[in-house]
DegV family protein
Amino acid sequence: MHEKIALMTDSGSDLPQHIIDKYNIKVVPLKVIYPDREYSDRVDIQPQEVYKRMPDEIPTTSMPSLEIINSTIKEIKEEGFTHLIAIHISSGLSGTYQSVELVAKDFTDDLVIKIIDSKTLSMATGLMVLDAARNIADGVSFENVIDKLNNLQPNVKAYYVIETLEYLRRGGRIGRVAGMLGQFLSLKPIISVDTEGTYYTYCKARGRTKSIEKLIQIVEDAVKDKQINLAVLNGGADDEFDNLLEKIKKLPNIKGLITSEVSPALCVHTGPGLLAVCLHEV
């Protein structure tokens, strides 16, 4: 049977539009909800708009609607695909993975479907999607694309510096980050995602400058003796992002470097002032 493999993710993967277009990746948008209106993430609201309205207006978010997941998979079927690989942000942080599982049951007669919980988010998920996209473009079989993803998943790392824990606390997503920090001491957490796909404090630094230096050090340590693919992300920290990128670009052993913005649906939980690096060994 000839395999025509479709690839689907959600907007929480933070993939830049040019990559989405190049590989025909189907993206289901998360929802960004204000009292007066509901938006589709990156469709009719962009990250900068959300940041501008903070801290006066902090929206809530929710997973993509079942309708949009259904219509996206239906479109995949109608475009003649025989197989679908769907890679979504951590089920420990969003109900998206479970929603896609639920809707996909209606299509199992028409499509061979594999849904993967990336157990991470942002461009750490995005790097997994990109790996799958390249393999599909290279003609790798459905089962082998999945095998490669399963091998890659534990090796994709994400590290975030945030300005304040307030937004994570409000969003109820503070996880094991809570109780480990004295904001009054100006301790800034570098947050990562554990093997269960929930947030934890990777390390702490005294003050904002030191925490950004720590982020650079994480990348420096990663490139010491191996090549990496790297994504650097900005969440409303424009000048600091430019400086961070400038320093990281000078490092050796970076095979692929992608820059992107953090999705509005994620920045709701982090607030403005987020910087992130996501990486894996090549």
User: Anything to note?
Assistant: The mean pLDDT is 92. The domain at 155-281 is CATH 3.30.1180.10 (Hypothetical Protein Tm841; Chain: A;domain 3). DSSP finds ten helices and 13 strands in the chain. The radius of gyration is 18 Å.
